[in-house]
Amino acid sequence: MATFYKRDEKADEILQTLKEQINLHDGILKREHLKALGIDYRRVLDFVETKDLVRIRNGYYTDTLDRFQEESLIHALFPDAVLCMESALFVHGYIKERPFAWNLAVDKNTSKSRFVLDYPKVIPYYTEEQSLLIGQTEIQYEGIDFKIYDKERVICDCLKYEAKMDRAIYREALLSYINDENKNIANLMAYARERKVVKKVQNIIGVWL
Predict the structure, then answer these.
(1) pLDDT in tens, 135-173
(2) Under DSSP, is residue 120 helix (H, G, I), strand (E, B) or coil?
(3) What is the spatial distance between Cα 34 and Cα 30, in angstroms, rounded to a whole number?
(4) Neighbours of 135 (CB within 10 A)
(5) Are 149 and 137 in contact (CB under 8 A)?
(6) Rounded (10°) CA dihedral 185, 186, 190, 192
(7) How far, in Å, are 89, 110, 111, 117, 198 from residue 97 at the CA level?
(8) Short-list 142, 126, 140, 23, CA closest to 80
(9) What is the pLDDT of residue 1?
């Protein structure tokens, strides 16, 4: 990539301003911030080339990825997403091994380009707006408030997408739910009807209840 601007005193002043803005906005500089500051977007491209800034994804920049734990980066990039499937199972304590990617439920109309990331790895689940709200709650994880599906919704989704899951993870999740003293069977059956897995709940989990 060609450098758009020569490095000069002006560039150093702009870089300092950008870093101040990064600190003010939880470590992330968005393209909309540049517009508000009246800074040419090409300046950022130049700073990325010289490694003064890091491109997280299109329109999102920071000064160093070291300032982020994965959790805070996911929360900053996808505040509208809901932790689901393996990610939700892990946060709920239903599986022991941390998933290799973040599983996020999002509105089906969400742009797919949002999830083109080198880091962290994200697997989106595009969901109808009505289904997106079923069993949605909040949880604090690593000091951050995340949207997440509750245990019963996650188990229903595991049953629904059984064929796509690792068998060991699937079994571990179901056994964890069966042994959970705080499970809510009324909610499980309500979600099962919504997710169309009533027979699976009755045949696979019902015999243990």
Answers:
(1) 999 999 999 999 999 999 999 999 999 999 999 999 999
(2) coil
(3) 7
(4) 25
(5) yes
(6) 10
(7) 10, 29, 30, 22, 28
(8) 126
(9) 47
